[in-house]
């Protein structure tokens, strides 16, 4: 007989009736770990995780290798913990799917922000649009380090042509600061705009995301420069 069964049943019932609003952070981890560790004291493990990583966010952001340095956390438990933010990211992306055209920066920004959720390195996404500015494809085209990602002009043009795109929106995240373009961001974007124009594809915008904030290079006037 599992001596923790009654406690776990009460926790599950509490969650089903009230959600997580009346749970402390350690209770959240405790209940999550029920599903990976059916016969261990997950309350104690939850406290150990918070001691090791500081906050609930710190636990979910930790690598599997770091999680498994906590005594009692094996591969299954680490995998379950890492699954939470990744599932949340996919949920947010699904919720943000556009029902119409990406006709302005606000709509495009809301669509793009979830793609950078829980990302610790810079990434570059490219949205291919038809003539009505509806999404044909949204693709990750580059991954970099914590503060830099390289973008290939040739890859951007090839992808636009392969999708028969009429227009393109680029986006990347800043993990090391605020959502403002660097001089290099501006120069590269103008170079890409010129290359796309040669194949009759319009660069609509380059949106920079930091957390839940974003800056449209088009709206902010950065793309008004011709050189």
Observed structural traits:
five-stranded mixed beta sheet; 227 residues; 5 strands; alpha+beta; 9 helices
> Rg from C-alpha positions?
22 Å
Structural class: alpha+beta
Ends apart, CA distance between termini: 74 Å
What is the overall shape? Answer: elongated
Order of strands side by side in the largest beta sheet? 2-1-3-4-5
Name the beta content range.
15-25%
> Would you report the number of β strands?
5
The major beta sheet can be summarized as: 5 strands, mixed
> Overall mean pLDDT score?
92
Percent helix, as a range, is 40-55%
Number of helices: 9
Please trace the helix and strand order, writing H or E for each element.
HHHHHHHEEHEHEE
| Uncertain stretches of 5 or more adjacent residues | none
Briefly say what this structure is.
By secondary structure, the protein is of the alpha+beta class.
Architecture overview:
The chain is of the alpha+beta class. The protein is 44% helix and 16% strand. It has 9 helices and 5 strands. The chain has helices at residues 5-18, 25-34, 42-53, 56-61, 64-67, 75-95, 105-112, 153-162, 183-198; strands at 123-129, 135-143, 167-173, 202-210, 213-216. A 5-stranded mixed sheet has the order 2-1-3-4-5, sandwiched between helices. The relative contact order is 0.09.
Which SSEs are present, and which pair or pack?
Elements: H1 5-18, H2 25-34, H3 42-53, H4 56-61, H5 64-67, H6 75-95, H7 105-112, E1 123-129, E2 135-143, H8 153-162, E3 167-173, H9 183-198, E4 202-210, E5 213-216
Parallel strand pairs: 3-4
Antiparallel strand pairs: 1-2, 1-3, 4-5
Helix pairs in contact: 2-3, 8-9
